[in-house]
């Protein structure tokens, strides 16, 4: 029966999964999870839903015919990174079930500590369409309950002999007298029985299940989860000789408030930093190592050329560029931050421009072809703007001495599709600087 419920939920969520498409190239900086950055990681959820009991004294297989019981729940959650988290959950509910002329009733609450795993973070490395998280949950906890068995005909509390003596398949439970009342959390014999309350019966419970969350905003999520809670005992309904341990299932609808700064994302709603894998692969790529060596040689030659007087020019689109003070800086995948090496190149350009106040420079930005065309145009623009800010703010160059042209993925220096597998993305992720001769 548990497998049927899980399969129903999976098939209900499958259309959402198939309809979702993520393009890593279209992610903004705040969407990417980077180690060292700070994200909101705490949240509080409140919810409610039906609590369905699977015990011996019930007259249904999957869902109750009547007497549905509903449970409120509260969760405090901590997210450790994109996929993994933990939550402390509390719930409470009344209990009821009937079968063969008798019924049990009572109430319970349970407290559990649960590990959570965002499944989509492992499958597609981020939220689905930046709106959905599908997660699995497994935990351990304690359930505390009181319950009594009654006769359906006259509502009296049953004793052991009413159920277990003379009934085939029901041996007298160990440690119970025939005159003991069938109660848990009440006196079962002696003064005050069966109405006098005692300490609640407590048992270990194992919650497990799946859920889905929809991101409303940076502060709020809404979602639903289905959690089965498997008990370590068979006494929730005070039926003491059943074949299987008791269990109960909560299907709740939850509203989540994400604690923290309003301008920061919650870690569960971020995407994998693909640049981590890219750097790891580059370290083992001999072609990339050769490119790094070549790039350093080009930068060194550019430095030597920048102090020479060279009148040779290149004419492109009616604008002339002096090669002697040209420079190129390179960027990591999907980033626009100026690296330490790029700062060294820009310092050389700034030196030449400070020596000759008449020089004007054109800044041309490029991207590799990963990501959409529109996104890459904006990314190349951000790279140009970062280059301009460095020259203006760090080296005090007049911004009016610059022109900007951002080309996105156009004019690839290394066509990685035609040259696969030897094409290199890095040479396409750059900004070129040329002195304009007017």
From TrEMBL:
Annotated protein name in UniProt: OmpA family protein
Keyword presence, Protein biosynthesis: no
Pfam family, one: OmpA
Major subcellular location class: membrane
Annotated organism of origin: Carboxylicivirga mesophila
Domain OmpA-like: start-end pairs: 318-438
Keywords, alphabetical: Cell outer membrane, Ion transport, Membrane, Porin, Transmembrane, Transmembrane beta strand, Transport
Membrane topology value: Multi-pass membrane protein
Subcellular location: Cell outer membrane
